[in-house]
Amino acid sequence: MFAMLTGNLPFTVQPFTIKALYAKMIAGDMNTLPEYLSNSTSLRRLVTHTRLPVHNIHNFNHFAM
């Protein structure tokens, strides 16, 4: 979604190495958002690592009617 809205990837490094890319992702050093998306915290949340539990099929019944 980030790439579709901005035309860029959320994390890039030059020169490219997997180790440098991984370090940038872990640090949360995301590329800047364009001005037209600068107030969008939802997009930033999509690529921000959190330690909150992830919902899966096993706990889906808690949300069902």
State the total count of DSSP E strands. 0
Structural class: mainly alpha
Compute the CA-based radius of gyration: 15 Å
The unreliable regions are: none
Strand proportion:
under 5%
Succession of helices and strands: HHH
Major sheet summary line? none
Mean pLDDT: 78
Envelope shape? extended
Number of helices: 3
Distance between the termini: 29 Å
Percent helix range = 25-40%
Describe the protein's architecture and organization.
The protein is mainly α. The chain has a domain at 1-37. Helices cover 34% and strands 0% of the residues. The two termini are 29 Å apart.
Topology readout:
Elements: H1 2-6, H2 18-27, H3 41-47
Produce a short descriptive summary.
This protein has helices spanning 2-6, 18-27, 41-47.
Question: Which key terms come to mind for this protein?
Answer:
65 residues; extended; 0% strand; 3 helices; single chain; mainly alpha
